[in-house]
Design a protein that fits this description.
By secondary structure, this protein is an alpha+beta fold. The protein has twelve helices and eleven strands. The chain starts with 13 loop residues before the first strand and ends with a strand.
Length: about 325
């Protein structure tokens, strides 16, 4: 394993290549780590110890912090608290209910106005003449849960995104504990919430911690809710949903800027980041990583398909290069 100092992009290995009409026209570099069931590093590429912002792959830890702070969530509500939802009607309806149950409204959300994350939903949303709203932003379920726990504890709801807020301080502790390493930096996520940087090894370790946690613990409750209700974690047309639905016991969560973390039921785990942030490389790299962990399921092939089109016909693909 290389130094914890971030590698220069040019020195990171190619994780995926872009092949059009038999010609390699581009590359996606990054870092990756696979953990064995006992938690040891089984395979690594690039600099997986270097801190990254996991973006929404941190959401299970944020949801666990909300539980530790005293909010009694379960089922679909807890899954949605850890979600980057697609903006489908069932997502938005539940966010509204979660807010109303605590005397809150969508106007209390401090998520930036956005379109549904899912392209199909976004097209339908615009065709209906609707405009960007904080409710529709993919993190609104997490924010609704954050606001609810503030109401429950008498904490200020206007400053719930301040890094010094009691909830965010607790979240930092949960992230560090689960990752087994200190938080290297605190930034601001796309939704406005504080974002804690950890290494990819720590991120994979955190997901492993959640699936192996004691039943009834905050970490296990989050993992169980996400796995039982994967459509609330992502959506009906999303790889996280497919993987958790079709490979029993799997916990999966993507993050912006091409981050992905997965843990299998027996503790095997993976985490990677595509350095240029290109989401088109996520599926092929995830599928190859799962293959290296020994996952043999049709969903892996489905996730790995990233075709390139020319004149409406398939003429190539983004494919893993390791």
């Amino acid at each position: 394993m290389t130094s914890i100092s971030p590698s220069a992009p040019a020195t990171l290995p190619v994780l995926a290549e872009v092949v059009r009409s038999g010609f390699t026209e581009g590359h996606h570099r990054g870092s990756l780590v696979l953990l064995a069931a006992d938690g040891s590093v089984e395979f690594a590429l690039g600099d997986p110890a270097a801190p990254v912002f996991p973006r929404s792959s941190n959401k299970p830890m944020q949801a666990a912090a909300i539980l530790r702070a005293g909010l009694d969530l379960s089922g679909e509500r807890l899954a949605l608290a850890a979600a980057s939802h697609s903006g489908e009607d069932f997502h938005l309806d539940l966010v509204r209910r979660m807010l109303a149950e605590h005397g809150l409204t969508p106007g209390d959300l401090r998520t930036p106005p956005d379109l549904p994350l899912d392209a199909v939903e976004a097209e339908a949303y615009l065709a209906a003449g609707r405009v960007r709203e904080p409710l529709t932003m993919n993190c609104s379920g997490k924010h609704a849960a954050m606001l609810a726990v503030c109401v429950r504890n008498g904490w200020d709801t206007a400053t719930y995104l301040d890094p010094a807020h009691p909830l965010q301080l607790l979240t930092g502790q949960v992230v560090a504990e689960a990752a087994g390493e200190p938080v290297a930096a605190v930034g601001t996520d796309g939704c406005g919430a504080p974002l804690m940087a950890i290494g990819l090894v720590g991120l994979a370790r955190a997901f492993r911690t959640f699936v192996l946690a004691e039943p009834g613990s905050a970490e296990r409750r989050v993992a169980d809710a996400m796995r039982a209700h994967p459509e609330y974690v992502a959506g009906t047309r999303r790889p996280d949903t497919w993987l958790m639905r079709e490979v029993p016991g799997t916990l999966s969560k993507m993050g912006a800027e091409a981050v992905q973390a997965v843990a299998l039921a027996d503790g095997r785990a993976l985490a990677f980041k595509i350095d240029d942030g290109s989401a088109r490389a996520l599926g092929p790299v995830l599928a190859r990583s799962l293959e290296l962990l020994g996952v043999d399921a049709p969903v892996v092939t489905r996730i790995g398909r990233a075709p390139l089109l020319g004149g409406g016909a398939e003429v190539g693909a983004v494919r893993a290069a390791f």
